[in-house]
């Protein structure tokens, strides 16, 4: 195999300074004003623009100007929120791992992909993303997925001398390549520049949100139109009818909703990242919240992925090997140590991973299992790795074994089921021993050898399946991979949260079952399946797997895909982990594809929605917790916002129903002040509510945002109470001022009454904000300190209220005046009234739930 020496660190540093980092040019940013313009010309904004235009035509310039101010303030606000969300998303992308293996200073080292320079020699293995444009120096069974360049997804085979383009994925084989162009010089950069204008397709959440928003807006317009016609028929002035209709439409349109949701998702994503879970698109935050089924692999997620070869079995008997971690010293015990040493050397030759001493510690370099083979060989023979093989037949999940050719010998190691059948004579005790070792939770690897006849050159390009036959079995190696210490606790938590967990692993059924038992994953009755035995029929498969604690062993990537589909067909929201080259389809099919940040392949990470920066199973559960919390927050501020709408709409309805005889309690401008003034900050603060303590103590729910609970709370409980207080306060002040039914109230009195009604709504909303913090307990049972933002938001809300009432110019513009003291006191009662209604509702629900169970 021809390899180049690579650059020295100094050369590389120099070149890096000249050429700049190996990064794609940052996407040409859409100019700020364009984005801002977009915020002011979307569907709602256009509706409001129309309203403003009509107001002008109807000779109501003040109203028109006010509406325009609303559109602008709203647009600016939405823009700021979107920017913050995008910044958060960009920061998260920067956390994605991007290490490359290169030869520098004659040594194999890991560097960040952005540090690559022309002339670097990179080592590529299946699953890697080619980090820059390169020319292959050597290639074995090398095939790349170039679909990101050509759109053609069939793997393209490559040989030494061929180019391998940056951004493509190595899906098979391995090789070394010399970097020919980096960063902006790459072919991908050219294409990216061409396509950067492409808009990504809408995601399910944004579709759902848009639907909600469209429906509400449609409703608003519909109601407005109906009332417009009705009021004309009743004999209203054209102008009054029109004013009324605009009020209704503006009151009902949820202007600030979309950006608030986006920001809330971004904050959720950021919190997940703080707990090592990286989502690759914001909507995944919401999907995580509704996850019901986790399919996890074993190695590295549930276990530590710190392999230690503790036993070697040969026909002479078992040999026990002791030692700490990847340190080469250790003890040996048993008969047939010589045979065991041969097994270890063969296994090491067939491995690429090594144990290395750096930073004061022995560590695994490369695959931990292969590093363990190196350690085993050192412990048994005291030797360091010898000559490098001249050809490798790398591991793939279908063959489940790996071989290397050294001189005229082929050394092979892999899963016993796939190695034993290609060996010539397998003594009976060996097969038994596989089961015995696996039942102890050991990963069992069979090691075999074949002496090739004739010159090695004759075997240069023979396919793996032809080479790996007629072998001589040397022995078995048992590797220990202890479970992560806290994984049993995490599984218990996940159970409480109503999540079902299945272990989907490539390992031996007995090994998998033993680990599953150790960590308390096994369900009762125990169900351990093998990939090959899965039922053909998808419906039967779904029914079989739809329970907790199933272990599926020896699965192929295709079977993983089937598992994901079968569970989804049963209504589950499935999170599926994967690390291999071929896991892409299963990861994409699952609702949440989960990839490993430390050990997985780039291919898997590219297909995933969630990347575990620490490879830990617990991170999936933590992400689900945060997802639920974020969903709950969106639900919270939706409840809050819609309650306000009820209070805003009621005065118009009463006005219209009374045929204009009962005066209008709130004007259009007051409604706008509520929507974009007092209401905005508390809604944002509700979106930042930290996860409740019991959020993982409840079963998952897959709900629409506008579910029954929300509708009941808003339209039957909180909304009516708030509206009733508003109208009561309004009538009381009017009555106190000497107004009686049927009269037209004197202007000053009407403004004071309207100010009282406005105050009542603001105070009701203040209480509502606290009431919305929890769906189950009254607000006084929650700590104040847990959402400081809300306290500030509420103070701001009160300040805005004061400004709207006591700055004469503004108050007059809004059509209100400070209420008389009695009216003010009455308005204060709106807050306790809302809290009381909330408390009664929550207690009743609790009692109902208790009587049900
Ligand atoms: P897991 O789900 O535990 O990560 P994998 O799909 O990675 O399982 O591996 C499946 C089986 O393939 C292992 O149990 C082992 O027998 C075999 N195997 C895995 N990696 C290698 C390797 N590098 N060399 C040889 N055999 C391997
Ligand atoms: Mg694995």
From TrEMBL:
InterPro entries: ATPase_P-typ_cation-transptr_C, ATPase_P-typ_cation-transptr_N, ATPase_P-typ_cyto_dom_N, ATPase_P-typ_P_site, ATPase_P-typ_TM_dom_sf, ATPase_P-typ_transduc_dom_A_sf, ATPase_P-type_domA, Cation_transp_ATPase_P-type. It is a multi-pass membrane protein. Pfam families: Cation_ATPase_C, Cation_ATPase_N, E1-E2_ATPase, Hydrolase. Residues 2-60 form the Cation-transporting P-type ATPase N-terminal domain. Keywords: ATP-binding, Cell membrane, Membrane, Nucleotide-binding, Translocase, Transmembrane, Transmembrane helix. It is found in: Cell membrane. The chain crosses the membrane at residues 36-57, 63-80, 215-236, 242-266, 710-735, 747-768, 789-809, 821-840. It catalyses: ATP + H2O = ADP + phosphate + H(+). The keyword Thylakoid does not apply. Belongs to the cation transport ATPase (P-type) (TC 3.A.3) family. Type IIA subfamily. NCBIfam families: ATPase_P-type. This is Cation-translocating P-type ATPase. It comes from Arthrobacter sedimenti.
């Amino acid at each position: 195999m021809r390899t180049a020496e690579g650059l020295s660190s100094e050369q590389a540093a120099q070149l890096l300074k000249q050429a700049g980092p190996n990064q794609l040019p940052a996407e040409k940013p859409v100019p700020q004003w364009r984005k801002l313009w977009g915020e002011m010309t979307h569907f709602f904004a256009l509706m409001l623009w129309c309203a403003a235009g009509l107001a002008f035509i109807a000779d109501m310039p003040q109203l028109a100007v006010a509406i325009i101010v609303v559109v602008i303030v709203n647009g600016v606000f939405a823009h700021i929120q979107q920017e913050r969300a995008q910044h958060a998303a960009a920061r998260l992308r920067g956390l994605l791992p991007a290490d490359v293996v290169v030869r520098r200073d004659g040594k194999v080292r890991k560097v960040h992909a952005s540090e690559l320079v022309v002339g670097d020699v990179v080592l590529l293995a299946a699953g890697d993303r080619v980090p820059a444009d390169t020319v292959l120096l050597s290639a074995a069974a090398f095939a790349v997925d170039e679909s990101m360049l050509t759109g053609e997804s069939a793997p393209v085979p490559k040989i030494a001398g061929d180019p391998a383009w940056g951004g493509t994925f190595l899906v098979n084989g391995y090789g070394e390549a010399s970097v020919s162009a980096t960063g902006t010089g790459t072919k991908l950069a050219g294409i990216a520049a061409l396509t950067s204008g492409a808009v990504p397709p809408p995601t399910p959440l944004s579709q759902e949100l848009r639907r909600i928003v469209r429906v509400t807006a449609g409703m608003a317009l519909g109601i407005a139109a109906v009332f417009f016609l009705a009021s004309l028929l009743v004999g209203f002035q054209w102008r009054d009818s029109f004013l009324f209709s605009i009020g209704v439409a503006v009151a009902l349109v949820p202007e600030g909703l979309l950006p608030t949701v986006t920001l809330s998702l971004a904050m959720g994503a950021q919190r997940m990242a703080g707990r090592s879970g990286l989502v690759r698109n914001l909507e995944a935050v919401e999907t995580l919240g509704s996850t019901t089924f986790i399919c996890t692999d074993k190695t590295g997620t549930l276990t530590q992925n710190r392999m230690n070869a503790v036993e070697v079995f040969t026909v002479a008997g078992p040999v026990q090997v002791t030692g700490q971690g990847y340190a080469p010293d250790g003890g040996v015990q048993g008969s047939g140590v010589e045979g065991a040493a041969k097994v270890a050397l063969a296994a090491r030759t067939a491995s690429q991973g090594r144990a290395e001493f750096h930073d004061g510690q022995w560590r695994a370099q490369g695959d931990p299992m292969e590093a363990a083979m190196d350690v085993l060989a050192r412990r048994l023979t005291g030797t360091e790795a010898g000559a490098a093989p001249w050809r490798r037949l790398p591991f793939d999940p279908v063959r489940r074994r790996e071989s290397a050719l050294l001189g005229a010998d082929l050394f092979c190691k892999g899963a016993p089921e796939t190695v034993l059948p290609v060996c010539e004579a397998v003594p009976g005790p060996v097969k038994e021993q596989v089961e015995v070792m696996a039942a102890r939770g050991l990963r069992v690897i069979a090691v075999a050898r074949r002496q090739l006849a004739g010159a090695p050159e004759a075997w240069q390009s023979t396919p793996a399946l032809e080479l790996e036959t007629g072998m001589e079995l040397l022995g078995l190696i048992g590797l220990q991979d202890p479970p992560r210490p806290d994984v049993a606790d995490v599984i218990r938590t996940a159970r409480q949260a109503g999540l079902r967990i299945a272990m989907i692993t490539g390992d031996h059924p007995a090994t998998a079952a033993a680990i599953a038992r150790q960590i308390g994953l096994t369900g009762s009755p125990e169900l351990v399946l093998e990939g090959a035995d899965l039922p053909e029929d998808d419906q039967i498969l779904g029914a079989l797997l739809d329970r907790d604690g199933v272990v599926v062993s020896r699965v192929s990537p295709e079977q993983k895909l089937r598992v994901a589909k079968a569970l989804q067909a049963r209504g589950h929201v499935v999170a599926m982990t994967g690390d291999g080259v071929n896991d892409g389809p299963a990861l994409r099919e699952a609702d949440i594809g989960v990839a490993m940040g430390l050990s997985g392949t780039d291919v898997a990470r590219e297909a995933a929605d969630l990347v575990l920066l620490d490879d830990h199973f617990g991170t999936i559960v933590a992400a689900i917790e945060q997802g639920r919390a974020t969903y709950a927050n969106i639900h919270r501020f939706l409840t809050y916002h819609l309650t306000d709408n009820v209070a805003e709409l009621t005065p118009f309805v009463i006005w219209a129903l009374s045929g204009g005889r009962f005066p209008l309690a709130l004007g259009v401008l007051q409604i706008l002040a509520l929507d974009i003034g007092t209401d905005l900050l508390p809604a944002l603060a509700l979106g930042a509510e930290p996860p409740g303590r019991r959020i993982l103590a409840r079963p998952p729910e897959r709900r629409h945002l506008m579910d029954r609970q929300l509708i009941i709370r808003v339209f039957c409980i909180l909304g009516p109470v708030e509206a009733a207080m508003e109208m009561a306060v309004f009538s009381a002040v009017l009555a106190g001022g000497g107004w009686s039914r049927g009269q037209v109230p004197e202007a000053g009195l009407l403004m004071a009454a309207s100010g009282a009604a406005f105050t009542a709504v603001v105070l009701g909303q203040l209480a509502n904000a606290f009431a919305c913090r929890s769906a189950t307990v009254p607000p006084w049972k929650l700590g104040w300190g847990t959402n400081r933002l809300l306290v500030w938001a509420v103070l701001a809300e009160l300040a805005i209220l004061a400004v709207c009432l006591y700055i004469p110019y503004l108050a007059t513009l809004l059509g209100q005046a400070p209420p008389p003291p009695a009216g003010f006191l009455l308005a204060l009662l709106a807050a306790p009234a809302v809290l009381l209604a909330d408390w009664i509702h929550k207690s009743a629900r609790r009692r109902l739930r208790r009587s049900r169970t």
